[in-house]
Amino acid sequence: MYVSLLPNDGALAPDEQPAVEPSRRAFLAGTGALVVAVTLPGSVYAAPDDPTMAPPAEGASDFSPFVRVDPDGTVTVQSPAQEMGQGSNTGLMQLVADELDADWDKVRIVHAPEAKAYRFAMIPGDARQMTGGSMSIRQWRKPMREAGAKARAMLIAAAAEVWGARPTDLTTDTHKVVHPDGRTLDYGALVGVASTLKPPRKVALKPRDQWKYMGKGMPREDLRAKVTGAAQYGMDVRLPGMVRACVVPCPIDTGRVKAVDDSAARAVPGVLDVVVIDNAVAVIAKTFWPAKKGADALKVTWDDAGHGDVGSATIARIHAEALDDEKSVIKGWKQGKAARIIEDAETVLEATYTVPYLDHATIEPLVCTVHVQDDRCDVWVGSQAPTLVLRAAMDITGFKEDQVAVYTKTIGGAFGRKGNNDWVEMSLHIGMQVDAPVQCIWTREATTRMGRYRPAITTRMRAVVEGKELKALHVRQTGDNSGRSWMSPFFQKLDFYHWFNAEGHIKIGAPYQYENVLVEVVPRTFHPNVGFWRSVGQSFTIYKRECFLDEIAEAMGEDPITLRRRMLRDDPRLRHVLDLCIEKSGWGKAPEGHFQGFGLTDWAGTMCAQVVEVRLDSGVPRIVKVTATLDCGAYVNADQVKAQVQGGCIMGLSSALGEQITFDKGRTVQSNFHDYKVMRMNKAPYDIDVHLVDAFEHEPRGVGEPGTPPGIPALVNAIYAATGTRVRSLPLPPELGGVG
After folding, report:
1. CB neighbourhood size of 72 (10 A)
2. How many angstroms separate the CA atoms of 370 and 236, rounded?
3. What domain range includes position 558?
């Protein structure tokens, strides 16, 4: 990771020139960018300019891996993470601006193209540039701070040379270096000198009491651009000679094109060509509308790959049978003698919970622009995994890495969907047959029916209760695996792969301790492809665990919060999150006719508790308020963390109220927002009150996903308190507040 500071030729007055004339080598170095290295193993910068972006200011260097300072003092931060609505770009700007002691109004941020400098290994041995798992601030907080601090140190050293002073006598104050006698030099005026100096190996980072921006609620840097329409998404790419492709994918995943009658499509005015690839047909036109009309006129016969008889009922039946398949069981967590205790018990509390397939339902449909030429390939796309795009382009075109450029665009929602690469691969195959830049677009219907869905999961929960003691807990879960479309065949052979979906049930992600527990997974794979969905396995395991805990508490005659406090593992931070949520929500003190439910999660070290409050409107539960508490360690932007919790909560509640993907004859039934029913405003909580725990002494953890899971069981538990009805299958039926 690096910082680049541009020279500013002629910016210094004659009496301000350096006291020591730099060597020829240093001078030549000063005519380009100053590169300040930050420890990040394997980082080698090599990335081209994006021709769709405005060029750097006159006198600026080529793109640098991290930061550029223009002659006018403008600081440009290169974002290694993908901005998809989570606000990470604002947070990354705060990190750099604070350590650089920059003027916030002079700092901007752009997306970095795919390059080695921005890759890191989430999986050992597989470094890639990607954004997922709530990793943006966790991964880049320290490198960004160090880069800003090293840049500041270089500017101070440059000013020391100009003034003949000692660097230790100088300081900085909002975009300028300050001499003890009151003289100042702006950053832009010092870049040329700074670029001739050797960067420091180590720098001290600012203590918290010196922060100007970190930990504060700075305004979103992209707000104005998004409100005015200036933000550049994948759909906004415009290139000379570009054509559009309306892509019609096979309606059955793993299916193929069998035959195509494109005569009617080619007859549509404006249609230029029809391209057939293995699993899709694309109609090419100068603009999208004739391409869409041509696509509507296509007559395609599909090979359903033997899945034409599979429907949701088939999948549900296989799930039910799998729960009794002792031969396929993979143990995820075993402690004590849960199986024996349950087998010998006279009374066993048992409940089976089911959740459906879910789409990511991003507001931006799939789009990717590709230009394949004789000697290179360029790709413009809003992808969570630019390195996977690069690898796909190399594989499909046969080009080497230095012949492929991937330009990342702002993403209009992702939630895990755009970490997959299927639509990019289709675009590349189409681009190989089109002698022009081609923007491949999937309609909303095609985007919905080509999802990488959150899998449907069925879980049987069994417990033995004696008095107010939980003697044993047995969890058996079946369904497809979220990691199937993302993890390599090697990882899919490991038991860890099968545990992946059970996070929150197994010891990973479990806030509770049990004397006797057995968690098992029975894998079942189906033809609909699956992928990561916001909060991954905890999007369903927390619903089941927290609801079943309420059932256990009722069987004990115990208050559900008292039971949880007793079962919590020995972690004062976790206990504080629970207690704070109970306090702030007024647990047990809801207004007459209002009812409350609770949910808790520990997502990768971020602890989030939520209380959902409902009231009955004509006998139907209506969400009134959500109270949430969150401990994510050190955070960068307080307002944005709260916004992420609120957004995650809405997404979780939406999934409970009405979202589901179903199948008939192998095909996805839902196609658009009229039948894939995300939460509307009239169903949203009136208030989502978020309280952040001050835990800056701890390392930062993720915030994008922990807010999603706990609201689901909290809602279901509140509905039970209001109606006496246990909900063990989602989405909710209309009589219990579901949208139907």
Report:
1. 14
2. 13
3. 312-357+453-736
Count up the domains in the chain and report the number: 3
pLDDT tens, position by position, 530-551: 999 999 999 999 999 999 999 9
Residues counted in the chain: 740
Domain boundary among 189, 220, 251: 220
Rounded Cα distance, 172 and 186, in Å: 10
Tell me the per-residue pLDDT of 475-517, one tens digit each, with 9 for 90 and over. Answer: 999 999 998 887 888 888 887 788 878 999 998 889 999 999 9
Residue 227 covered by a domain: no
Q: Tell me whether residue 460 is in a domain.
A: yes
Cα separation, 238 vs 554, in Å, equals: 61
How much of the chain, in percent, has pLDDT values that exceed 70?
A: 91
Split at pLDDT 50, 70, 90, the class of 25 is very low
Amino acid at site 175: H
| Helix, strand and coil in the chain, % to nearest 5 | 35, 25, 45
Question: What does pLDDT average to over the chain?
Answer: 90
Dist. CA 706–CA 699, nearest whole Å:
16
Confidence of residue 731 (pLDDT cuts 50, 70, 90): very high
- 559: Cα within 13 Å, side-chain hemisphere: 8
Are 560 and 590 contained in the same domain? yes
Residue at 225 is within a domain: no
Q: Kindly report the three-state secondary structure assignment for every residue of 283-310.
A: EEECCHHHHHHHHHHCEEEEECCCCCCC
**Whether residues 433 and 459 fall in one domain:** no
* Contact assessment for residue 87 and residue 79, using Cβ atoms and an 8 Å cutoff: no
Query: Are 416 and 533 a contacting pair, CB within 8 Å?
Result: yes
- Same domain? For 69 and 193 the reply is yes
- State residue 30's pLDDT score: 34
Q: Is the same domain home to 294 and 153? A: no
- The CATH number covering residue 192 comes to 3.30.365.10
Degrees, nearest 5: CA angle 122-123-128 = 60
* Final residue of a structural domain among 191, 220, 249: 220
Specify whether 654 is located in the same domain as 534: yes
CA-CA distances (angstroms) from residue 363 to 130, 440, 443?
20, 17, 12
Distance of alpha carbon 51 from the chain centroid? 27
List b or e across 715-731, with b for residues whose CB sees 16 or more CB atoms inside 10 angstroms: bbbbbbbbbeebbbebb
Residues 299 and 151 in one domain: no
Residues 486 and 373 in one domain: no
DSSP 117: G
Do 342 and 374 reside in the same domain of the chain? Answer: no
CA separation, residue 44 to residues 39, 65, 498 (Å): 11, 9, 35
